[in-house]
Amino acid sequence: MRAMRPRFDAGDKVRVLDLGKPGHVRTPFYVRHHVGTVLHRAGMFLNPEDLAIGRVCGPVVPLYRVGFAMTELWPDYDGPADDMVAIEIYDHWLAAAEPPPAP
Amino acid sequence: MTHDGHEHDHDHGHDHGHEPHEPLVVEDEAGNIEGQIRVAALQALLVARNLVAPQEVRREIERIEAPGVHLGAKIVARAWTDAAYKARLLDNGKSAAAELGIGVGEAQLIVVENDEATHNLVCCTLCSCYPRSILGQPPAWYISKAYRARVVREPRAVLKEFGLELPVAMRVVVHDSNADMRYLVLPQRPEGTQAMDEAALAELVTRDCMIGVAVLPAA
What we know:
The complex is a heterodimer. Chain A is mostly beta strands.
């Protein structure tokens, strides 16, 4: 069984993909396309998209906890800039985000 | 019978445009019970064919409903009174719970600590994931679409409706239990409880403060 290695680690900037997959996906729409920061690796888990259709033999995929500023998710958010959502995202839903352009 | 977090209702209308599928709804928020009727029919068939005994179903329901807030309260009170335990709890919630004889059936338990600078709040936007092994079944509002949708959108407004107005200097972190982790908030130990022992402290700890929609008042 191939074992996927985690591509990201704490501090990495990541963008959530919109894979357009039907079925039992665990990546909510409200974080798709948004850029967050990996808080930490959360382990390796069977992919719920496979489990939901009876594919219980793996492979396991890396899971991360990713933090998103509320102001990133909701442009009209009127609370403090450091308010945050922390959410769990599987590796295949993430891409490395471009570093912000130098000023 | 579903007992962990991954029961959910496939009614999010934005997800469609693919092949139609049978909804997995057991009971929707309008109170329609087609799902219940189906579950009852399935159970009757399983019993009639001797695949399941009625008492097995009851035992399983009892097992699911046995955990309660007292388990979470025990964990919190120990963390308040034992700094080394607290460190282990924050490092690995599942193994620290096991030290107290509390088995966490969910995949992992992440304990998030409230302090002067940060207030943590737990939700499950996709369904109803909740640390059931240590808090029992979630309150109705926790699984309501209103809470699930609003808490990641306007957490301070939601908290205010719970009677908790946080200073702007305090950061709010909302934890969405959308996959394999479950979350428990470690509330701040209330002022004026220095003389209390662990058992007395455990009596103070409420469900809502371990979800993060409340804080504990000074004793």
